[in-house]
Here is the input.
Amino acid sequence: AQSVTQPDIHITVSEGASLELRCNYSYGATPYLFWYVQSPGQGLQLLLKYFSGDTLVQGIKGFEAEFKRSQSSFNLRKPSVHWSDAAEYFCAVGNTGGFKTIFGAGTRLFVKA
Amino acid sequence: DTAVSQTPKYLVTQMGNDKSIKCEQNLGHDTMYWYKQDSKKFLKIMFSYNNKELIINETVPNRFSPKSPDKAHLNLHINSLELGDSAVYFCASSQRPPTGGLANEQFFGPGTRLTVL
Here is the structure.
């Protein structure tokens, strides 16, 4: 069965500093991986996704993520965080056939001035 | 134009009541979902429908009954509401991939915050 672990419940970074949010997955086949962001009081929005090919994927809002099969990881990064990036971030893995996506527990990002 | 919309945005009700939440998507997607997000932000899938057919039912109490009158709508009816049903409920949609194909990204509605007193 597929599963996703986000080890950090919350992270605080200074504005302008770099960011890395960790995600580890478990899935028997080729994983389909996603990062979503949820701003307070909003629904989830897709930041980026990985299906195959280049293991470094670029997303919206300056985010990128790197797929590392050997580590079963799909960490999200941003070189310089903006105050507007404060939100909840969810890593997710989808199964072949596409009907079931499992979400991690989320990492809350706080940005300090 | 809102891609995935839900009504109502807030719902406050008494224990034991029956209530419905409506969801509509104008993206032309084949697949729709209901998720429950608890107070710790944990997001759990409840149901998935593809072309009005139930595909996934994740051990949800049978007090919860989804209904899909057409591909663009997926409503959630809840009978005999309990305190533990208090949560934010999200509707989402995606384009169904070809058989054996890729899991597609989902588009989420703004959520319905249900409070059971």
Observations:
- The mean pLDDT of chain B is 89.
- Residues 7 and 107 of chain B are 16 Å apart (CA to CA).
- The two ends of chain B are 34 Å apart (CA to CA).
- Chain B touches chain A at residues 4, 31, 40-45, 48, 50, 55-56, 90, 92, 94, 96-97, 99-111 (CB under 8 Å).
